[in-house]
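Tokens for T-cell surface glycoprotein CD3 epsilon chain. Go.
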Amino acid sequence: REVIPEAIYNVISLLVGLPPDKEFLVEISGTTVTITCPLAEENIDWQSTRKERVIREGKYIIENYDSSPTNVSCSANKKKYDMYLKARVCTTCEELDALAVTGIIIADLLITFGVLILVYYFSKDRKGRASTSAGNRPRGQKTQRPPPVPNPDYEPIRKGQREVYAGLETRGF
């Protein structure tokens, strides 16, 4: 019975879409990146393209990571795992768990709906009311108002008054 070499198995699992049996564990907190090798051995040899090397309890720790891409590999007992690390980190970032984000979204929606209900309530209440201006007088039955007095400068031409407008002649177009 022939055993499939690990490199070929990883390529096949990548092409077919099967997850590899072991993966790196990457934890990011602020600008510190902690990488755990999928090997369960105690003597793990780490290799990286970065100059600084901090290894504690079998974990590769990158402090003050500057978001630049890095190749990291770990090996033990002729088994080797490679990883390409490209992560974004920031110094002022705050970590939020799913419960906090859900709470913020729900609180925002409740406040928005509360404001909408208040606006609707107060606008509905003011529809039927008359305005409260200083010249407000009680209204009785509606009475007809006389038409406005015409301006004497724009008085219409009457039949007996053509001499006022005699200087104006019609033009032929």
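The radius of gyration is 42 Å.
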